[in-house]
Design a protein that fits this description.
This protein is an alpha+beta fold. The protein has one domain: Ribosomal protein S19/S15 (30s Ribosomal Protein S19, Chain A, 2-Layer Sandwich), CATH 3.30.860.10. 25% of the residues lie in helices and 13% in strands. The chain contains 4 helices and 5 strands. Strands 3-4-5 form a 3-stranded mixed sheet, with helices on one face. The chain has a two-stranded antiparallel sheet with strand order 1-2. The chain is elongated. It starts with 5 loop residues before the first strand and ends in a 39-residue tail after the last strand.
Length: 129
């Protein structure tokens, strides 16, 4: 038997039937406040694009990293800008209530290698190859 995903006791079908105000009552206070203040022009455009291209296999690119993920967006393929490139993210039910920017990291993991030539006194004995 397949496990049914539930968000705060509600199934995915129940969540999709809710309007934004009802859904915001299930969220934390920060996300609830963001939704109650209303969506920005960019966020409204993104939600409109998600509605239009949801069933199609189209990547929707956006800079709206502070948009709260709502049930309408489940299954959408988004390209979220991280300051350098668009990171492709497919929205699943576990992402509800989070912000888009949480899934597109802006910083890479720092990887250090051997010290550069002349970095220390001992580095002059490090072979170049």
């Amino acid at each position: 038997m397949a496990k049914i995903y539930r968000f705060k006791g509600k199934t995915q079908e129940e969540l999709e039937q809710m309007n934004l105000e009802e859904f915001s009552n299930l969220l934390t206070s920060r996300e609830r406040r963001a939704l109650r203040r209303g969506l920005t022009r960019v966020e409204k455009k993104l939600l409109e694009n998600v509605r239009n291209f949801k069933g199609k296999d189209k990547l929707i690119r956006t800079h709206a990293r502070d948009m709260v993920i709502v049930p309408e967006m489940i299954g959408a393929k988004l390209g979220i800008h991280n300051g350098h490139e668009f990171v492709m993210v497919v929205i699943d039910p576990g992402m509800l209530g989070h912000r888009l920017g949480e899934f597109s990291q802006t910083r890479k993991k720092v990887t250090h290698s051997a010290p550069g030539l002349g970095a220390t006194r001992s580095s002059k004995f490090v072979p170049l190859k």
